Amino acid sequence: MPSILQIVGILIAAYCSTFIYCFVRNLYYASKSGLPMLVVPWDQNHFVWMVTAVALRPHLEKWLPKSIYKRLRLTIYGWEFHERGRPHKEYLGGKRTYMHVGLGRSEFWTSDAEVVWEVLRRPNDFHQLDLTDLFMARFGHNVLTTNGDRWARQRKVVASVINERISKAVFDESVRQTEGLMDEVYRSSSDTSDCAETNKLFDMMKKITIHVLSGAGMGATVSFSGDTLEKPKPGYKLNYIESVKSVIYNITGPMLLPQWLLANWPSTWPAAENMRTLSCAMREFPVHTKDMIEQERQRAAASKSAETRSNIMSQLLKASESEADMKGNALSEEEMIGNLFLFTIAGFDTTANTLSYALALLARYPAWQDWLLEEVDQIVPSTATAAELDYTTVYPKANRTVAFMLETLRLFTPLIHISKQTATAQTIQTSTGAYWIPPKTTCYVNTILLHLDPAVWRNLNIQPGEESSDDDETLFRPTRWLNPSGSAHVIFQPPRGSYVPWSTGPRVCPGMGMARVEFVTVMLMLLRRNRIQAVCLDGEDEKQAQLRLESRMRKSQSILTLQMEGIYDVKDATDGLSLRLVKRNRE
Ligand code: HEM
């Protein structure tokens, strides 16, 4: 009879041998592919490593030999943002496509625009990762979590939904919400009425984003302050917006816990209140969504005209029903709820963090803020009331603001990599040769490094008065997006596969237009009446405060999406990162 110790020993040996097996298989695949290989001593997707490695980093740096630590760093989640081109220069002779040989799945990495385009234009060969289901399919499969025909059927419906009518609704809702934000900032500030300091501006970007998604997405409008929030219906603990907020704020962690654990979370354990609310939210969110779909159906049936309301849900319902009429391809109720959940999740963190980086960049670079203010003053009349601002006259003129967004997304791309997986081996043909990609391989597009490719970005559209430099691609310079006057396009159109914050090809983000409208509107509304400044800490001058902001941005972490650390969920006045709004005199 083997002893318990022997059984434990055998189990540990069996577990360790899986790593050895993976490593040997990955080595074999990498050499068969003929691609350069980068050997790393661990697996970035090992669950325990994923949740502990970022916190362990300073200790590992202190205790491990430098040569090992430098490779191990390439398995710590988010390394692409911190390491940029270092591994390519040090280990890969500058090559942009290679096999990452570690102790987990076989991994193919690229930041070569031609290869990126090939991977992303072939969704039937490069599928969504299985892991996507864990976060995104909690309330039903949707356009992000499916592949093949099931994806194509849903995509057709979803792609037609975010149209110009939705853009107008997003514009109007963003105007309303940003007005509410400014009221709240000035009302709650103890400063003079001409300026207000707050460390809650980043939290407010999240709030605006949720409110725009609920208003323009589901027709569930609410004021910025929340004073028009409906009471939960009888039998419910939360209303729709409260349940959305709870689900969204917990998506990267607690939402993965089983429902029974959330419901029975002991009151003496940490975050008990949050867990109980989340448990209700998980139960009530799909019920609220179902109710709202049903109400929308009844509204549409009662209305004699074919005209529908301008929100994503009503458009989705209409598009799904017209598909049903034509080919019997309507979305099932599960798919409808799954997609409405996806719109909320996919549009939230990405847009909110892009707005947050833009605020930090405005405060970091006052000269770029002045450049933006020139445009704001030309296209947004100082005397116009919120109701008088019109999407069709204002938005198309906001070229500098769009350039500011595109540059923010180039350097602070919310998804630092786009990942796909192969089921069977694939070949990619490029102008420099063919690449063989093994079966069951995760293919990563390193968006951070892709967006720093000097061949595309260095000294692009240098304007009169600007100087060329040999690290220009690493600098924040929104003017690179503005083509010389007389060009066919005002905004620079990057070569295929070279700029992919919204991905590219058939699975390009369908919310791209919506995110652009929301970003531009929030910026225009904030800047038409205010300047944004960094707040100096004791003993700091303005320049030092700006450099502190830059270092905060440099230390960002990727938690589903890239974000600055410690700027959200501020508890008291000393927490987070403070910015100052200063009222502008536009007379
Ligand atoms: C700055 C804001 C945004 C960024 C950077 C962004 C980025 C992306 C990226 C990179 C993908 C591809 C993911 C993959 O293939 O794995 C994607 C897909 C998607 N996004 Fe966005 N997104 C943004 C805003 C939005 C908004 C506002 C919505 C909707 C309200 C939205 C809805 C979707 C959907 C439904 C998909 C799945 C498309 C498919 O697989 O066919 N996104 N997004």
Automatic annotation (TrEMBL):
Keywords: Heme, Iron, Membrane, Metal-binding, Monooxygenase, Oxidoreductase, Transmembrane, Transmembrane helix. The keyword Transmembrane helix applies. Its cofactor is heme. It comes from the Eukaryota. The chain crosses the membrane at residues 6-24. Pfam families: p450 (PF00067). One of its GO terms (molecular function) is oxidoreductase activity, acting on paired donors, with incorporation or reduction of molecular oxygen. Heme binds at residue 509. Belongs to the cytochrome P450 family. This is Cytochrome P450. It comes from Baudoinia panamericana (strain UAMH 10762) (Angels' share fungus).
